[in-house]
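Thread: quick sanity check before group meeting

JM: Hey all, I'm pulling together slides for Thursday and realized we never actually wrote out the predicted structure for the chain we discussed last week. Dropping the sequence here so it's in one place. If anyone has concerns about the input, flag it before I start.
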Amino acid sequence: MSDNATEVSQIIREHILDKTYAYGTTIPSERDLVQTLQVNRNVIRNAIDLLIEEGLLKRVQGKGTYVIKTDIDDSAIHFKGMSELLWQAGYTPNSKVLTTKTRAAGHKYSNIFHVPDDTGMFQIVRLRSGNNIPISIENTTILHESIQNEEQIDFQVYSLYDMFSINKIHIHTIRHVFSSSRTYNTFARLLGLEEGSPIVSIEITSSTKDGLVAEHTEVMVVPTFAKYYTDGIIRNGEFHLSSQLF
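JM (edit): ok, ran it. Output follows.
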């Protein structure tokens, strides 16, 4: 085979599209691909880089290279997850899951999602970092039925919007409401801040084109990094920003 990264990327792409390399799994290691395709490792690495830029693959240090898109409609609006935005800003992102649970909607989430109080919800709390610097704590709630087997998903590899896409939930609008606050106790410690330090609080509500709420996230973010929560949409679509900061 010609030592051509484009040709090699096309072979790997075809294996992704025909599900030989299935969504949610790692592709073979670089060493295995070198042996299978009979090209040098630099060609393999460059081919993988092309597919990462295309959004088909995601390289996770210490874990491998994961398939993150297969037959998703590429014409759909794409919302960048925090990891993607941090990579573009020159940070190495990390997401640590602090807790997950399934709960009833109750009064609060029944009002947000417009569902009965006893509707099942899935909740995940994550600590976001970049270059090992704490950035934010995100408390995300979604409808339990919206994503299949969400308890088994590695949210350190996949973004919430990856999961929505693969489950055919197309986000059309994201609304951000900003306010100023202060952090104390465990939250201050996790963010590496002193007691009473100022933070930015953000409520994020994502909805489909039909107006159905898909996600509600409450964020506590270090002020320096708040800007990354306002730059999540590319291509077409709507972005509603309601700012109450300062």
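AS: nice. The longest strand covers residues 171-183. The chain is about 25% helix and 35% strand.
JM: adding both to the slides.
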